[in-house]
Model the fold of this input.
Amino acid sequence: MRWRNEFGPSLVQQDIEKKPTFATAVDDLTVRRAQRGDTDAMAAIYQLFAKPCYNVAYRMAGSAAVAEDIVHDTFVKVISKIHRYRGPAPLWAWVRQITFNTTINHLNRRKWHVPMDSAEQIENTWADAGAEVRPAATHDAEKLLAQLAPQARAVVLMHDLEGMTHREIAAAFDQTESFSKSVLFRARKQLKALLQADQTPDQTTQQQDTQQDLKP
Done:
């Protein structure tokens, strides 16, 4: 049984909200009911976290079909393991960690080679979640991220968008903290270079227009 069909329509068919976030509190009663196998409580948890889970998976994989599979696998794990959840971290942090672990494991099996959707599909599907390395309003942050290698893109998303620590990222990748810091440094450097290259034609045009205006 696929959880997305049980608890709601396919996420591809839904409007992806702006800035969906994992940081949403779940009341203790709902958690306890889900741990006892209450399907209504499980559905409530799915509805809270399915969209941020999908957006993370889509940004990392670049494929709607793969992201849907990752959401399914993530919630199979969430529902099957929720009886083990005891805190002290909030439930949303626990779900987020499962999401990233599942996504990374999924992409590792594919050796990080996933055919990405077309630019038009990416533009229509990705929500603009912002980033620490943020381009001007006239530039598309998502398209810049799409040009990074998959692992680099994943680290940027985990650190800059989701606020995960280098220790958490290292654990997800089964690597050292130095790995996370090094990948993030190189990815930010590449993003800045891509942004500068993207801005150059506009800046040149503006300079030419200014020179024309100054002519007698």
In short: Residues 8-19, 117-139 have pLDDT under 50 and may be disordered. The chain has two domains: 16-127, 129-200.
